[in-house]
Amino acid sequence: MATSSGQSCLATKHPEMVANLMRSSATAMIAAALMASTPASAQDAPVAAEGSFANPAMPDRPMYRFWNNGGMMTPTSITEQVAQIRSSGAGGFEANQLSGVPSVSKVPGYDPQRHGFGTPEWTRAWTQLFKAGKAQGLRVDQIYTPGWSAGIQGLSPDAPGTAKEITFGSVFVNGGESYEGVVPEAKLPAGVTKRTLLGVVAYRCDSNCEAGSKSPPMLDASTALDRTASVKDGRIRFAAPAGPGRYVLVASWMNGTGQVIELAQTPTPSYMVDHFASSGAQAIVDYWETKVLNPELRQAFRDSGGSLFFDSFELNRHGEEVRHWTDNFLSEFRKRRGYSLVPYLAAISNSSNPMFEFSNGVGTRIREDYRQTLSELFVGNHILPLKQWAHSYGMTLRAQGYAGWGPTAVNNSDAAAAIDIPEQEANNRSKPMFSTDASDAWRQVVSANAQMGRTIVSSEMGTFGRTDGLSRVSLVMRMNEVIGLGMNKVVYHGWPDQTPGGSSRWPGYMPFGNAVGDNYGVQIPTFADDVTINDYVARLQTVLRRGELRNEIAMYWGGPDEARYGDLGLERSGYTYGFMSDALMAHPSAKIVDGRLTNMGYKAFVLDAQGSGIPMNLASARRLLSWARSGFPIFVIGELPARVSGYHPADDAALRKVVAALFAQKSVTRVADRAGVVNALKAAGIGSAASYDAKPLVTLHRQSEDSDYYYLFNAAADRTKAEVTLEGKGLPYRYDAWTGQVRPISLFTRTDNGVKIEVDLASGDSTLIALTPGNQDTPKPVCKTAAVSTNADELLSLDGGDPVLRDTAAGRYATTLADGRQVSSEIAAVGARKTPASWTLQVTSWQAGAGVNDIAKVALTPITLTPGADGKLPDWQHVPGLENKSGTSTYKASVDIGSGWTGGTRAYLDLGAFYGTAQVSVNGKRLPPIDQADVSRIDLGGYLRPGVNDLQVHIATPIYNAAYKTKSPYGLVGPVTVIPYGQVTVPMGCGGN
Prior knowledge:
The chain is α+β, with helices and mostly antiparallel strands. It contains 20 helices and 53 strands. The strands form 13 sheets. An eight-stranded parallel beta barrel has the order 1-2-3-12-15-16-17-18, surrounded by five helices. Strands 41, 42, 43, 44, 47, 48 and 50 form a seven-stranded antiparallel β-sheet that branches.
């Protein structure tokens, strides 16, 4: 955030800028506004393409949301904690004040009057925090106001700049009768004292007109009678027309919502700002510039290299819809939609359950226009001014451009396109283990960002509850999934501030207790393994920021909220897809070059009449027709609506003509339902860069000048094996993000435009493959041929020379090479599988120390464990004395493997089940980091020796059993099995052996 040091604030220097940014009318103006998106250098510098996969650069590493206590932080606590964040393998942090969560946590040492936002101590601490981050080489982002959504002190809920809503008062009148009295009104929210009359309109009520009706009263919009001008001194007289029937007089008012941001913990109340008026954004800017920033902090902002951040905009009250409004909404609506809203105010709602409804579908159409106008105002009056303010300090805007509490009016595509680094939340409360909420919402945001020519999409990672008890393992699996949907910037939720005074109970300050996936920091036993996980994430982010995103299919999504396709057919055949809104269809980047649409290279456009948010507007329909006339393939699912979006009945006939012309084009294919789309695409010759047959895989494809990168994620609850065809030039390489190794794939079949390989993925696991003639990561190819088949378990390239063949059974194995040769290999002997008969468990208990922030690490008496009949060990809930323990542990066992077999004493280790994080040592030597999502084939390689071997499995647990007595299962369960394999070299003339 912020401005240049020693310069006037943006609002003072350019008072017209914020005001002018909101004058972007309708879809065309939103599209024009999106053209002013961040230049690549602002978002991506320094770019990850120059980073090392094995040792990623700092900008490519994940970040932490640092929940801090503002001015309560001391210079010492800041310096120590920022150094700890650096030592975790992170590349930065988001400074986010969160001084307690109502009903969950309190900060006893925090005094809002002394430590809150806007106080000298807050500015002092924030300056030191930014400087400490820079000293450690870390990127520093920051939330734009404490708590969420945005709120600012010093404003009355009645004043311009604070959140407003439309409310209704009504009175029913029988035909031929009259009402004379005060204009009906709703009760004002607490703290609100003023209201502004927007209009008083009478309607005939056709049904649901009696008190107590469960459905909204159904009104006839054609009978609307505007009685606003007859209001005098707050009173009105209305005479209902004579005859049978019932009428209702509806008064519409604007008033403040009175919403206070409790999480802000500011010296005086922070009222929610108006997110749809320029005055709301201006209030944020003005407060920073006049109350918070000084020259030193301004310079620190410029030096940070970070982003201004806002969280999901939760503008509704819990359990209650807010019908959003703003001071000049009526004039903005008329300008953008072309008609007066006053006669139709009664049907206003963000949801499909308004207080009043209009017959003949009029209410639905009015609400489409209402929500579209709000969406445009949010982008033009909130996102763009704040982004420009951030840019004035050399910062970017990272933001969650969506709502999570109740109905929303915002088109997520348009918001994402306007934000420099759009962010989604990996929120998985009460969902299946490997299922992310609304996967298409990720594709929607990722594709909008990519169409704007940008690379990075971030995730607020780890907000799900711990119902599975697998904390870090489930975290890794969920990261694997959203990475497959295009996310390439992890921001963990979060790292709690351990400044003294932050908590009255051990193990220190944890604002959400155990209600989130986990907390992070040195007070958590998994900290050492978090470093390994951060290296893993950083390597994936390094590669998956290279080049450009590639998608085969563009889908239309015209409505607010999250896009939804609702069918897995495309995903499970390898197709990748994104979404286009009306604004994105009108954007200059939506052009067809060499038969491909946009820079993502869409091959076809799908218009899903069964679920596209809302009907398409006339301009978008005409745009689609022009694409079809150029020969671009269009697929229409189901019957298209006979009307345009919004209340524009004069355009309906024109739309029907456009649709008729569209269906007359040879490039247009009609499909009965979503289930038929894949076959229709294939029949039209439109394939996917990655293809497989009905497998539960999620594919991400990025393309650089020298490589095609494919990321494959297994979304099934079981292990998945698949034969996958990939397009690209050169040879296939497998990237191991856990170890940083890049190795050629020795077993593949060459196709006309790529290769066919086999993938074998555990549930929740992923693999990264590059198809390239050579890039900065890959070793120089030394093989002149490849193997196309083998009947052994594996054929691996380990050192650049001839590959090795592996199998867990003795026998003779045949390998067919690409040049037609067949190589016969023999594994004469393989040792028997071994299961340790006894284990010694050594636990180092992490428990309360001298102070609430202190950890006492106490070595407990070793425990002997014997596997049960099923080979499994008891988890800690079934080991007396460990039920409420957390910490680090080592399971020790001895395994006698005998004298050896073909290839030496090589074996895999299958850990079975475990709860926590896991690492392995053999004979005192630590193995490379293991894949936390798949511990079934840990390669013990050359670590084993003939005879007796010492096996150690290191398990680190969450802190929750010790801190909150959650009674979660921790530890190694197994069954643990050593699986010997034989290994022989297959002579292929590769050299190096």
